[in-house]
Each structure stands twice: as structure tokens, then as C-alpha cells.
Amino acid sequence: MVQRIVEAERIESLDPSAIPRLRMPERATIFAARAARLLQLADASNPIAGYLRLMAALAGTQQRVLSQFSAPMPSRASIELNQQHSMPIVPALTDERDPAWRDVLFLLLDGIEAAGALTPALTQLVTRLRTLDAAALDAQADAILALRFAEIDPAAAPFIAAALQVVWTDLASRIDMKDVPYLDTPGVCPVCGSMPVASIVRVGGAYEGYRYVQCGLCATELHVVRAKCTNCDSTKGIAYQVMGTGDEPEEEKNAKARSAPLKAESCDECGTYRKIGYQEKAYDFEPYADDLASLTLDLLMGDAGFRRAAPHPWLWPEQPEDDR
């Protein structure tokens, strides 16, 4: 008797109850939804409300630029080669980056200027970015994508990252998810090879009750089972922290933790954390926006001795001089 081995992708396609492995970005709404959520979160009580409004304007401009942008798709041979080696299908770290990303950057800067209310510091930054040559801009892009912190200009990085996001979100939105390979490395986007920013437990349809991590570059979402570290895959020492629990009785503290729409999921094995949001408790939750807006929770986790599993592409810390 000949035994037939069925590949995992084929099994998933045969089983109508299978958990969807990926959620590809919705091209028509991805950045618009992010912009709307950032504005929602930029209330008076948020310590970085002004910055969130600026980033909302940036996300809105990303949506307008994306609607008119189309990057060259990878060849069939390239897709099959990456599948064969279990590599990201359109890797961000490549020597063949579409130079049009720099045009996207300048369009984003145009949009920010058109939105008005530029501070003197922001005006100076925009002017400086416009004067950088292609080599300098590409060097910054390389440093951001490779997470070479000492080389990153923290003021310019959010705008450069935003331009790269438009390019890779465009690619991800047009890729057939059946072509996306399974990777051996946990915590890495199988589309572009970048790190996720946060995760979301979704509601509705085929995604009901399942947790997805959202890539910080191409916005592809990858299913990861709950109570499992999204950074190292460990199931040991997983704990959750929320904002706003003080000296109240333990019962009240636990009730507040259960009802919180956003938590930090920490892992004792690798010493990192990544935020997780629950759409059933905040339907408009958007992983990228909510992660950016919850800086207080980052401070809480830092005080507890945990480090972020990956930086937020729109919030880069200043590096000490001796680290540069």
C-alpha cells in the first residue's frame, strides 16, 4: 500500500473548520482604521495625545498614498524558492528594495505638511528629510528593518517606517495567502520577516475567539494560540498585567484585570512582553494604534523587569551616547 503524505496547507484547505492561519491586510481600510483609532485614543488623559494626533494624520496619508501605489510583485520563481527554504515570501531585508519607497516618503511628508499645525521642530525634521540623498535614506531604512538601534535617527524613523509600511502592505494585500510558507522561527512574519507589534483576540466569522499577532511592517496577521509566548513559543511562565490596578482589594483588582480590553502578556522564559487586546471588549481595537497609545503600560512592564519583544516602529527611544 502506498502511503500518501498530505501537506499542512492542503489539510487546512480541506477542513472547513480549520483556524485561518493568516489575515492579510485589507487594502481599502487598513490605514484608515488605524488613523480613526489613533484619534479615538488621543483623549485629554493620554500623555502623548498630541503625538497620537500627528500619527493619525500620518496614517490617513498612508491610506491615500496606498490607494494609488503598486509595487512590483515577486516572480513565481522567487516565491517558490522562498517556499522551498521556508523563508518570508517578500523579505523586508533585501538588496532589491523598490526605490519607489523614497517617493512614498516624500508623499507622506507632503500629506503631513498639508494637514497643518506643524511645530517648528517638525518643520525642521521634514526639511531635513527632504534634503537627505538616496544613500542616506536607504541607510536609515536598513537600520530600522534590521533593528540596528544605534544607527537609527529616532525623530525621522517613524516617517521612514511609514513609507516602508505602505510598500510592504501593498505587497501583502496582493499576495495569495496560500503561497505564504510556514516558517521555523517563532515570532516572525511569514510574509516579510518583520516582528509583530501586538496581538488581538478577534470576534466575528471564521476568526471568532482566535488570537492573531499583527506585523509591524506589512500588517499581515498570523494566528498564534493563546497562553503561548508570541516571541519564543514557550507556554511556561505566561502572565498578564493591566493598567490602573492599585491598592484596591484583590477581588476588585482581578475583576478589573478580567474586563480590561488591553493587557501586557509577559513571558518568564525569554523576559519579554507583547500587548494583547480583546475585540469583544473594545470592538475598534487596532493592534498597532493601541500599542502606540498605551505607553504607560510599557513603563509599568519596564519597571517589572520585562522588555518589549519588538519596538514600535513609530516610537523609537533615544539611545545613550555610549551605545551609539
UniProtKB/TrEMBL annotation:
Residue ranges occupied by any FdhE N-terminal domain in the UniProt entry: 19-182
Compartment(s): Cytoplasm
Transmembrane segments: none
GO molecular function (one): ferric iron binding
Domain FdhE central: 188-226
GO CC list: cytosol
Pfam family, any one: FdhE_C
UniProt entry tagged with the keyword Cytoplasm: yes
Principal location: cytoplasm
Segments forming domain FdhE C-terminal: 228-315
InterPro entries per UniProt: FdhE-like_sf, FdhE_C, FdhE_central, FdhE_N, Formate_DH_accessory
Alphabetic keyword roster: Cytoplasm
Function per UniProt: Necessary for formate dehydrogenase activity.
Protein name in UniProt: Protein FdhE homolog
Biological source species: Caballeronia fortuita
Gene name tied to this protein: fdhE
